[in-house]
Design goal:
heterodimer; A: 83 residues; Non-ribosomal Peptide Synthetase Peptidyl Carrier Protein, Chain A; 6 helices; 0% strand; globular; B: alpha/beta; Rossmann fold; 7-stranded parallel β-sheet; 13 strands
């Protein structure tokens, strides 16, 4: 499966949102402003990414500055998974 | 006798805790004064206090959430507020001549003025954000805040941080809530400082139904516009539990559409007077509200919105004293299930009771007053 679609599936799982919500998610969707992820949901996403691909989201976030954290997108997460 | 100048931003969660400490000092015969926006301070502290007014400019509403709220809190409020009030705070300090300045961690002008004039100062930490380093895992965010303070010309001494007094940091919480941290020895965790509050004479005490659990829903003073999306879902949860739960909702009545019969919706609720009759609190995890509930052994459902609230919510969950839900997303079923769980499963109330006991042992406002007295007379 396409990594982006799989990440959107994980986002759906951690938010409990529906298909319509998931269909509107694009690589440009920002986790904070667009998807309105709460900190517990970001933590759950981190767990899911680690379980699926062994990706360390907290370590990635630790390297970002405040503006980068505000503007973090689904595409950024996909790039992290592909890296 | 000593002289104490309190400097706090005009926000309820900050002023009430500082006010209780100031009151304890005044009762012991000390001279106490405030520096801040006079009208706002008097609304919360009454007409009996001495206020050196700093005025304030209007600040953009704090509607942002998440990391954007971190940026807007500092750039949009804390730093411009400190810069605007600093000259007036310095004048107040010169006029009043305090032995100690008690400066809120978000009223940086107090710390800067005290340092410039060689007066001892204490930091007041009425919220979780500046105490337990929640951004420890995000070093760039911690560095951004420190740089923003320095760039605003608000550093003190050799780049010291005006949020953290080297003499005394008073925090209105306890390790039962914060969890274990390596707090330096000059940090005093005194528990919540609960003082007298303005009465709410119109509260309909007779409307409370003794046959049902009374639940308090209060989402904080900053949340009125953003909570409008939350209340309809909360109302759905209250409907599901209507047979055994009666809610008191602290909100403007038009913000809470169509609540179940018997629900009390009032913009002003006498929280401290009400808490002995409350079985659970649903709130935004503001530290002040959380501590008030836990000081009465009342378990919580926490729906944090922003700032330090996710930190405090995580502390409530770790202490076992409540359940965290999602402010922006939890539906009526999830909210009802969380509320039913804290009401029905005795572990939550038992954990809340343990935090209550730790708060009582921490000493509250009188203990905070004693720390400030010792700082004032220390050689």
């Amino acid at each position: 499966m396409d990594i982006l679609r799989e990440i959107v599936g994980l986002l759906r799982a951690v938010t409990g949102e529906d298909e319509r919500w998931a269909a509107a998610v694009t690589p440009e969707s920002r986790l904070e402003d667009d998807l309105r992820l709460e900190s517990v949901e970001v933590a759950a996403l981190g767990e899911a990414l680690r379980a699926r691909w062994g990706v360390d989201l907290p370590a990635y976030l630790a390297g970002l500055d405040l503006d980068q954290l505000i503007d973090l997108t689904v595409g950024d997460v996909a790039r992290l998974v592909r890296a | 006798m000593s002289r104490f100048l309190f400097v706090a931003p005009p926000l309820a969660g900050h002023v009430y805790a500082a006010g209780a400490v100031a009151c304890a000092l005044a009762e012991r015969g000390h001279e106490v004064a405030w520096a801040g926006p006079e009208a706002s301070l008097r609304r919360m502290l009454g007409d009996g206090v001495t206020v050196y007014s700093t005025g304030m400019r209007p600040y953009r509403g704090q509607r942002d959430r998440g990391f954007r709220a971190v940026r807007s809190l500092w750039q949009g409020f804390v730093l411009p507020y400190a810069r605007f009030t600093l000259p007036a705070v310095e004048k107040a300090l010169v006029a009043f001549g305090p032995d100690v300045v008690a400066a809120d961690q978000h009223a940086l002008a107090g710390a800067v003025a005290a340092h410039r004039h060689g007066v001892r100062w204490a930091s007041l930490a009425p919220q979780s954000m500046e105490l337990t380093r929640p951004f420890r895992a995000l070093p760039e965010v911690e560095a951004w805040i420190a740089h923003a303070i320095a760039n605003a010309g608000l550093s003190i001494g050799d780049g010291a941080d005006p949020r953290f007094s080297p003499h005394l940091v008073l925090a209105f919480t306890s390790p039962a809530l914060t969890g274990p941290h390596d707090f330096p020895p000059h940090y005093a965790l005194v528990g919540p400082a609960l003082g007298a509050r303005a009465a709410a004479p119109d509260f309909p005490w007779d409307a409370l139904d003794p046959a049902r659990h009374t639940v308090l829903v209060t989402m904080g003073t900053l949340a009125e516009d953003v909570a409008r999306d939350f209340y309809p879902r909360m109302v759905g949860a209250l409907r599901a539990l209507e047979g055994r739960v009666q809610a008191v909702v602290a909100a403007p009545p038009d913000a809470v559409p169509d609540p179940p019969p018997g629900t009390v919706v009032a913009p002003q609720v006498p929280v401290l007077a009400l808490l002995p009759r409350i079985a659970a609190v649903v709130c935004h995890a503001g530290l002040n509200t959380v501590c008030e509930a836990l000081a009465h052994g009342v378990p919580l459902v926490v729906a944090p919105i922003k700032h330090d609230q996710p930190v405090t919510a995580a502390q409530v969950v770790a202490a076992g004293a409540g359940i965290r839900v999602r402010f922006g997303r939890s539906g009526p079923d999830e909210l009802a299930a969380a509320l039913a769980a804290v009401l029905d499963e005795p572990g939550y109330a038992a954990a809340a009771g343990r935090v209550r006991d730790s708060f009582a042992a921490a000493g509250g406002a009188p203990a905070a007053a004693s720390h400030l007295e010792r700082l004032a007379t220390r050689l």
